[in-house]
Amino acid sequence: MNKHDELYLILNNISPIPKSIWDDVKDKFKEKTIYKNEHLFRVDEWVNDFYFLIDGIARYYYLTIDGKDFNKSFAYKKGHLLSSISSVIKQEKSPFSVEVLSESFTVLYISYEEFINIASKYPQWNKLIFKIYEKLIIKKEKREADFLLLNATKRYEKFLKEYTPIVNIVPNYQIAAFLGITEVALSRIRKNINKG
């Protein structure tokens, strides 16, 4: 199966899109592959595109004033949307970076403007856009709730469930940064869980 067909199945699963529409718009999605430790985009860059993950693992991260990084999220599922919504919609610089963690990372991308313009031609595309935003909002809401309501151990246990396929691939310091704790604290949590 080619990459465009893979993306069609993913998008069609989010919200049904007739194959005839996909056949008309699929060439607007371009392929890009980058490699480990490279960035899809960096903090303070302008982001104009929606990137849909086809293969690989990446992390979204913020940089603090003193140069420490804080992981916002990980991308590893096919079809995962990578972008800076504030950048593509409000024409602001991205507040975070996206770095590749796997040996290679392949996306199909389309300009945000083009993605939205498709909806003016095909009303079914509006529902897809709505569903994509809905998923992003729910994910963000859950992440905020985790930090407000769960202690570090519970956040780690939830990470293990949600990110099972990449737990043994992502370095410990990256997991600790995602959980908002130090690597030493993560080691302590693991020891306590293993004792239990």
Compute the number of strand runs.
8
Q: What's the main sheet like? A: 4 strands, antiparallel
| pLDDT averaged residue by residue | 94
Q: What is the count of structural domains?
A: 2
CATH class of the largest domain, named: Mainly Beta
Question: In which range does the helix fraction lie?
Answer: 40-55%
Describe the structure in your own words.
There is one protein chain. The protein is an alpha+beta fold. The chain has two domains: 3-136, Jelly Rolls (Sandwich), CATH 2.60.120; 150-196. It is 47% helix and 22% strand. A four-stranded antiparallel sheet has the order 1-8-3-6. Strand 4 (58-63) and strand 5 (69-75) form a beta hairpin. The radius of gyration is 18 Å and the shape is elongated.
Which characteristics define this entry?
single chain; 196 residues; alpha+beta; Jelly Rolls; 2 domains; four-stranded antiparallel sheet; 8 helices; 8 strands
List the helices and strands and how they pair.
Elements: H1 3-14, H2 19-25, E1 30-35, E2 39-41, E3 49-55, E4 58-63, E5 69-75, E6 81-82, H3 85-90, E7 97-100, E8 104-111, H4 112-121, H5 124-149, H6 152-162, H7 172-179, H8 183-195
Antiparallel strand pairs: 1-8, 2-7, 3-6, 3-8, 4-5, 4-7
Could you give a short description of this structure?
The chain is of the alpha+beta class and 196 residues long. The chain is built from eight helices and eight strands, in the order ααββββββαββααααα.
